[in-house]
Amino acid sequence: MAIAKSAVLILLFALACNADNALKLPRIAGPDMFKNKNVAKDVLLPGEQIISVMDFGAKGDGKFDCTQAFMTAWQKVCHQTSGPARLLIPQGRFLVSSMYFSGPCTSQTPVTIQVQGYVMATTDLSEYENGDWLIFQKHDGLKIIGGGTFDGQGKQSWSYSENCESSADGSCARNPSSLFFSDSSNVVVQGIRTVNPKGFHIFITKCTNIRLRKLKLVAPETSPNTDGIHVSHSDTVIMSRNTIATGDDCISMIQGVKNVFINRLKCGPGHGISIGSLGKYPNEEEVRGIRIQNCSLTGTTNGLRLKAWPDKYPGSASDISFSNIIMQNVKNPIIIDQEYECYPNCKKKPSLVKIQNVHFQNVRGTTTSPLAVDIRCSKLFGCQGLTVRDIDLKLGDAPTTSRCVNAQPIFAGLLMPPPCAS
């Protein structure tokens, strides 16, 4: 009996020790609810109820606090309806504080939120104890459409913004994102605008099968840490025909991101398209399967960038391609930086992040940097399987150059700047 009890105790101890690892299993995209469907077309489903926030006391005057009216209307749509239903935010200016749009819904999915009006965030940061402004979680089938606008009214909060990206210890607190999606699948966000967020415009984490289409995300070039679309721990994210002009990365992707397709992005001003920083935290999930094509970048402070910390934690990024990219007056057009926040004269131990199978093809336009292709990889691993093909980046009449450190890319086709010296 004592032996049996000991065996049970050992088993329970092992399960407890592995509980955290079980929770950290990477997300895998399941069935795609919107596959082969015309998501651009909005059609009322048979019997679909339209439930307006106005029916629950909202006032579109831009002054009245409509938070409770929005929350009550959402409860009706999501949790008190069995058939198809949509939440309508009609024309008007609606002031709301932080709130959850939580699922799963009892109504037939996908649930639609139709935003025709102008939704404004309250400005008092003490109201954002939830961490973000509008929080969408635990959904399987959600559409946010309608051509309306989400205004984060972030100007007052920008002076309190901390640069969490460059914080080495990860202790800083970021400003609230405007639209935050977590633990959800089969989500379409289409045809809406976000302006002046306190933090990120859109934050996606722990999600699968996400589509972001025809969005317009706008903030001043000087607004700090206002990434357009920030993605982590997610599988199968499709972004198409979006326009982003903001104060930080147009699109940023960090650990645990897989199978991302970005097409026809217009980016700028901003900090370009960024993968990383990687290797910042213990037990990071890999980044894999990123395809970026047919995009334009104008006046950005970086172009196409991968970045990883030296002297920190392991990680990996692989199977990444950038193709058919047009640049206009872009600084640092192509950069792999495994000395993040340490360059120049970095004396730290090399990065533990493995980078492999990264491809740059048909990147052309103008740059403000004499060093147009800058590849600085880990001395420990180098960068494996890099290709640089058909690059044409001009700096007026001045020559542009390439640099390769701990990497031997395969160069091919038309090349300006010339290949790195071997």
From TrEMBL:
A Pfam family annotated for this UniProt entry: Glyco_hydro_28
Signal peptide range in chain numbering: 1-19
InterPro entries per record: Glyco_hydro_28 (IPR000743), Pectin_lyas_fold (IPR012334), Pectin_lyase_fold/virulence (IPR011050)
A molecular function (GO) term: polygalacturonase activity
Annotated active site: H271
Location(s) in or outside the cell: Secreted, Cell wall
Gene3D superfamilies in the cross-refs: Single-stranded right-handed beta-helix, Pectin lyase-like (2.160.20.10)
Keyword Signal: yes
Keywords for the protein's UniProt record, in alphabetical order: Cell wall, Cell wall biogenesis/degradation, Glycosidase, Hydrolase, Secreted, Signal
BP terms from Gene Ontology: carbohydrate metabolic process; cell wall organization
Entry's family note: Belongs to the glycosyl hydrolase 28 family.
Protein name as it appears in the record: Polygalacturonase
Species of origin: Phaseolus vulgaris
